[in-house]
Design goal:
By secondary structure, this protein is α/β, with parallel strands linked by helices. Strand 10, helix 5 and strand 11 form a beta-alpha-beta unit. The chain binds 1-O-pyrophosphono-5-O-phosphono-alpha-D-ribofuranose and uracil. Uracil (URA) binds next to helix 6.
């Protein structure tokens, strides 16, 4: 199966992303917006969840109505910045489990270094949504998808707020089966591996560490 890139085409997402990009946006507002946009992209990323039906008694009559089939789902944030998106996903899919992958980019090589990993026991049976605000070189997401495949996961999606064309290309090469959901695709990477125009360092802006 060939993965697709789903770019959000919605005025609310576009508006909120512009506020995120603004360097004068406060940590509090930044954090809230990351969560809100995460919720909106989750709406798109869960469009193919399976439905079944059940009988429900309305105040008027009994009817057969759609309900989620209850397939197991897990959200997997790439630490640290991915944590900012978890809350938005859980507001849409409250029963989801959460697995964590800790990765940081080595500032010289730009390659990811793993420092933490904790997954639900039955993760291989779950549909996986990996979340991270930024897909830059794609190194972190590439590694995270690889780890999830090593765990035996077969249905994996990637959700990001901003993507660089370079990152998308890398994921499409390494993991052609993966669907990517993103708020917007930016122009390019700069020499330091930052997305241009981007929003700066997502982790620092979410956690106020700079
Ligand atoms: C950022 C971001 C991604 C990664 C993207 O994390 O949250 O995980 O960089 O870059 P890449 O596509 O080139 O791998 P960072 O390494 O700054 O760590 P942090 O989340 O702890 O801030
Ligand atoms: N990581 C970030 O947080 N921002 C970028 O622009 C690139 C990688």
């Amino acid at each position: 199966m060939n993965g697709k890139v789903h770019i959000m085409d919605h005025p609310l997402v576009a508006h909120k992303l512009t506020i995120l990009r603004d360097k004068n946006t406060s940590v509090k507002d930044f954090r809230e917006l990351v969560s809100e946009i995460g919720m909106l992209i989750t709406y798109e990323a869960t469009r193919d969840l399976l439905l079944t039906t059940r009988e429900v008694e309305t105040p008027i009559c009994t009817t057969t109505a759609p309900t989620l089939k209850g397939k197991k789902f897990a959200v997997v944030p790439i630490l640290r910045a991915g944590l900012g998106l978890v809350d938005g996903v859980l507001r849409m899919v409250p029963g989801a489990r959460v697995g964590h992958i800790g990765l940081y980019r080595d500032e010289t090589t730009l390659e990811p270094v793993k420092y933490f990993c904790k997954m639900p026991k039955d993760v291989a049976e779950r549909d996986i949504l990996i979340v991270d605000p930024m897909l830059a070189t794609g190194g972190s997401a590439d590694a995270a998808i690889g780890f999830m495949k090593e765990y035996g996961c077969t249905n994996i999606k990637l959700m990001v707020l901003l993507a660089a064309p370079e990152g998308i290309e890398r994921i499409q090469k390494s993991h052609p089966d993966i669907n990517i959901y993103c708020g917007a695709v930016d122009e390019k990477l700069n020499e330091q591996g930052y997305i241009v125009p981007g929003l700066g360092d997502a982790g620092d802006r979410i956690f106020g560490t700079k």
